[in-house]
Amino acid sequence: MLANNFLSDMNVNLNNMKTLQQQMASGKKFRRASDDPFNVARAMQMHSSINANQQYNKNITNVINWMDTTDTALGQMGNVFQSIREKLVSAGNAAYGSDERQKIKDEINQRVGQVAQILNTSFDGEYIFAGTRGASKPVDSKTQFNIPAKVDKTNSSGGDAVLSGDFTGASALSYKIKVTGVTVATGNVTTAEYSTDNGSTWTSTTVSGGTFDIGNGLKIKINDATANANGDVYSFSINQDFKLTYCNSDGTEMVVDPVQSDIVTDVAANWSGKDIKFSIADSSTATPVEESISLGDFTAAGKTIKDVVDDINGKLNSSSSLKGKLVAEQTADNRISFKALGNDIIKILPDVVGPPPSTSVTDLQSSINKQLPSTQFDNIQSKRQTELSQGVLVGYNVSAVDVLKYGTSEQDDIRNLLDRVVKHLNGMVEQKDASGNVLKDSSGNILYIADSSKATSALTNDDLKDMDKAMSQILKVRSEVGAKQNRMESAKEQNEQSNLDMTDILSKTEDIDITEKTMEFATMQTVYLASLQTSAKVLQPTLMDYMR
Question: CB-based burial of residue 42 (10 Å sphere; 0-12 exposed, 13-18 middle, 19+ buried)?
């Protein structure tokens, strides 16, 4: 019995020494959950919290770097607009002529390209001003051709010439038109020839009421002249400028103006049983596909705009050519808005007689033939968020829309401002009705007329005021970025301190005190050796032990 108790106690001492050896070797108080269940659970929780905190630190660091890049880009943008503003002030100099303004326009055209380049700044493979659509650039500088306001003539006998049409050529051209036939009695120009650029090749044109087709989508009307005008030459050049535009994911120009119904006041009368006809085409389709949808019966009591929207989307999703291509939405002011879901060119076609059914909805007549905007624009102006700590989300990006939009009206946009400035430098001003409203063509483009005096006045008045507003918007956005940067720096400091605190708690929970454990092991070793010596004297072996 005495021997058994001794062996049991010795085994306990050996296990204690083994535990101390393992703790000293690993530096940890426990090796498995059964060693200390409570502290093991606490240590596991602390490890999870520290790992999560380290990821939050990476998020914060990435956001700080992102916003540093954003701040640099906005600083460059401010410098560009300061330079443009100085050029506008110079353009108002009474001593400046058309040549000086042309040089100013050429420089501003380059600035348009520079603005596009800044707004397409990327960080870590993503465009920083593209919202959640970071894989494709948000804006681009598109070449546009402007028809000159004035046609020069080399004679005093011929009448003035007026240009019309939209230039469809691939590059800027200089035109010369030579009168080859005049009716003596009336002075009507009957025949003419034209050439482009070098004037070496003359092409005959067809006359119709004094109007000549001179190619590339252009026509020129030569007013009545005298017989002496025969052989005289009219000349002009197509101006090539740059325009800032939003981009679809495939690089094509994005339409952003909303296409929506009038305010819906009577669902039953204006929508029930009516037809909506759409045309859809992509950039490679020569002939658009046309398809109509027939709306349901909304004459029953209680039918609302939401019922109409749900019905339209249901019909679109069951269509073979429209499914997944567009969507209808209800706006806050009780309109029905249509948006394209991709890069397709989609329009609502007019109400015309004959099959297939046409758009007969009364509330949609003002939206006819307008290209539907893409939902990609929503992605460009959407906000990115990151998690700074558990449950704390912070938006950190600035979209191209935030930078370009400096007011509430449609024209309060840097894209339109730069386009107006270039037009004014070309001596053209917006056409307005009697109420002062800007006139547009069927495609929504602003109509311009030649008026050098008003154009110069616009440059140094309205354009300069709008330029100041645009610069204020850029400064406002930059200050917001700076405020977010300060918050991120504070969050980073707090995160690092929190990580230190949790690491300290974890160390106290699972790490050993090496000095203490060394003393305990020495004590345990002394006890073990003493017990061996004592047992050797107390438990003397007998002859019976050997016999067993």
Answer: middle
Q: How far apart are CA 180 and CA 4, in angstroms?
A: 134
Q: Does 22 or 116 have the greater pLDDT score?
A: 116
Q: At what angle do helices 452-460 and 462-510 cross, to 10 degrees?
A: 40
- The dihedral over CA atoms of 17, 20, 25, 30, expressed in degrees to the nearest 10, equals 130
The second-level CATH assignment, the architecture, of 55-137+397-425+453-494 is Up-down Bundle (1.20)
pLDDT more than 70, % of the chain: 89
Work out the angle between the directed axes of helices 37-91 and 462-510 (0-180°, nearest 10).
160
**Would you list the domain boundaries of the chain?**
2-45+496-547, 55-137+397-425+453-494, 152-237, 259-372
Amino acid in position 321? S
Buried b / exposed e along 236-254 (16+ C-beta atoms within 10 A) = bebbbbbbbbbbbbeebeb
Residues 6+ apart with CB under 8 A from 68: 485
- Is residue 362 within 8 Å of residue 350, measured between CB atoms? no
SS3 10: helix
207 is written with which tokens? Answer: 């006359």
- Whole-angstrom Cα distance, residue 45 to residue 413? 52
Task: Quick: pLDDT tens for 182-195.
Answer: 777 776 778 888 88
514/25 Cα distance (integer angstroms): 10
pLDDT in the model for residue 76: 96
- For the stretch 142-153, pLDDT in tens is 888 877 767 887
Provide the greatest CA pair distance for the chain: 158
| Rounded-to-integer distance, Cα 111 and Cα 393, Å | 37
| Contact (Cβ atoms closer than 8 angstroms) between residue 339 and residue 374 | yes
Residue 345's DSSP bridge partners are 281
